[in-house]
Amino acid sequence: MNILKHGISINLLPADFLTEQAKRAKFYKMQTIGVGIILLMVFLSSLVVALRILQSNNISQIQVKLDQAEGKVLALKERQASLFVLKNRLAIISQYLGKPSKQSSLYNLLDNIIPSSVTISSVVIDGSNISLGLAVPDAQILEDMLTGFISKETNKDMISEVSVGGLSKGRGDDFRITLKITPK
Amino acid sequence: MNRSQALNFYSKYKIFIFPAVVTLSSLFLIVFLILPETVKLVTNQRVGSELLNKFSSIEVKAQKLEEYNQEDLSQKVQYALRVYPTEKDYEGILGVLQAVAVRSGFNLGSFSLQGESQIGSQNYGVSVTFSGLKSLIPTLLSSIENADRIIRVNKIDLSENAQQVELDLALSVLYGQLPGELGSVDAPLPQLSQEEDELLVKLAVSQPQPVVEIPTEEPIIEVPRGKINPFE
Predict the structure, then answer these.
(1) B32 touches chain A (CB under 8 A)
(2) Can you tell me whether residue B125 is helix, strand or coil?
(3) How confident is the model at residue A1 (pLDDT cuts 50, 70, 90)?
(4) Is the CB of residue A73 less than 8 Å away from at least one CB of chain B?
């Protein structure tokens, strides 16, 4: 008990009691904070557990839907296999079908360059070489034909080298010639 | 220690015991419950998203598969396998080359089987001899490379005599095994491009080409038979 009289404060309570009261107040404060912390922890734990339960339910539902969708796809696996086979086959077919091989293209080129008056005794075309055996009626046709082989306009840039293997003249103006052509 | 002693002990040291209990309990809850569950929550969120994405893509795939007609697909597969079979078909290729010869106005002379060529795909070699007119050789070569099989011309050996040419061709006929894996449940569905659809139409509609008429040197003159007026 504090008595305030003319500015003098007198505390008549015993010192032990005051100490005890202070301790109790301090403990009460600590207790409040402690209970608050415990309640917060319990709240957080409950929240996390509840969210996990919700999440597990969601995931289970998605898993069920996923299993159903996978079941649908499995039921249609024959169609899927057909599509895979088609794609596999068409990839190769489109690469080759209707596209002339190099050898065919080279033959067609020679067919365009060699005049009809020239007699072909032999033609051998493989991937890397062309051998021609020709009988040419006269020198002008021979020159024109060789120019045709060499000129990029007529050879469509498909020929890199032309070499004469053998050249002989017949009794008249005709020539027999063997050519070796290297395609590009 | 009896109850009163315990209570006395607690009363004396409660200012230390109580905070210690609160701290330990909180730590226990955080370490064994809140933290692990929070980590699982975050991890499972990612798992859930992945599952949802997977479900969406598989659902779309199932819908697209339902749009296809199985009979139509099977027929298209047959067209493709006819042109690019899974195995060597020696009998088939002979028939194809005979048809090509007839269509192009040539005679098929000899036919023999050879080994594989190095052209980047599985194949078997065929050597054939055709005889016919020189002017029809481009037609023959085009017919071979547009035939009902994938055939590549490897070598052309031409020799000409008085009226006809003899053409020795070394051909490669392609074949190929089917892929081992024909698509798992979550594999993306292959889409056919417009070019591939057009190619399928071409394969389906591949009709026999018209037979090339061989020009003859002498015109055929038809002489009428019998009486002009049978009643006389």
Answers:
(1) no
(2) strand
(3) very low
(4) yes
